[in-house]
Amino acid sequence: MSSTLRAHLALLLAMSIWGSSFIALKIAVGVMHPMQVIFVRMAIGAITFLLLYKLWASGVRYQAGDWKWLLGMAAFEPCLYFIFEAMALQYTTASQAGMITSMLPLMVAAGAWYFLREQISRYQWSGFGIAVIGVVWMSWNSDISASAPNPALGNFLEFLAMASAVGYTLLVKKLTRGYSPLFLTAMQAFVGTAFFFPLAMTQPWPDTVALSTWIILGYLGVVVTLGAYGLYNYALSHISATVTAGYTNLLPVFTLFFGMVLLQDTMNLQQWFAIALVFAGVLLSQRAPKVELPIHPSATPGAS
């Protein structure tokens, strides 16, 4: 098997892991307060990184003044990103939240155009507009249920999570010139643990937490963060960032699949038409050359 084929298979597995993270997070926030879930997840990730200290800390050369960029990166993700995403999953289904992630590559391109003066074609603008219409249509026609008490609000909060991911990605573009992606991911875990600790402590903890919940939290903290990241990083070392970034469009497909199989999420007919419109917008945007901006795995919902 060629290294290129292995890279593509690694990407498929990484996307399936990240897609499943929405389901895991949806289950966990039904047992514990969202801020407690994120704190435990960050803490597990931070402990794992401490055990792997030599792997990510070797060769790091801090540049004066970079603290503000590192802090800004962590503020966008995990801090703002996970606040919005955890809140979103209280109001909408994992499947619908996952659909919002299909807009991430387009939003990154728009952010790069505005802040970095990157070129973006009319196809990309058109695709972005169509995808937005599809997301609004899907949210407007969502059925209220026990798993989605306010889907319009939940989908909007997930959109804000994606906006935070865009800000994070633009800062990663700057920081990866001097720091390894693994080092940056470790910094996120440490800052996230410190940030979410007081938020978690303001809420009453459940008297008991089932072993199944701890397994889910461990999955989020270790498998999603390190496993998916390792696969993605391997792929980046063998194929271009442009091709790699295109695989993020598969996230909503995996999330929708896992949501329907594991959580019995359902979609009405109008939502299926809206989903088709979102994918049409994404496909239209692919006609133009993509902005050569690496999508860091932690910028993907559920990957940090």
Automatic annotation (TrEMBL):
UniProt keywords (A-Z) are: Cell membrane, Membrane, Transmembrane, Transmembrane helix
Q: Which residues form the EamA domain?
A: 7-139, 153-284
Report which superkingdom the organism of origin falls in.
Bacteria
Q: How does it sit in the membrane?
A: Multi-pass membrane protein
Residues crossing the lipid bilayer are 9-32, 38-57, 69-91, 97-116, 123-140, 152-172, 179-199, 211-232, 244-263, 269-285
The region annotated as signal peptide is none
Protein name, per record: DMT family transporter
In its UniProt entry, the species of origin is given as: Saccharospirillum mangrovi
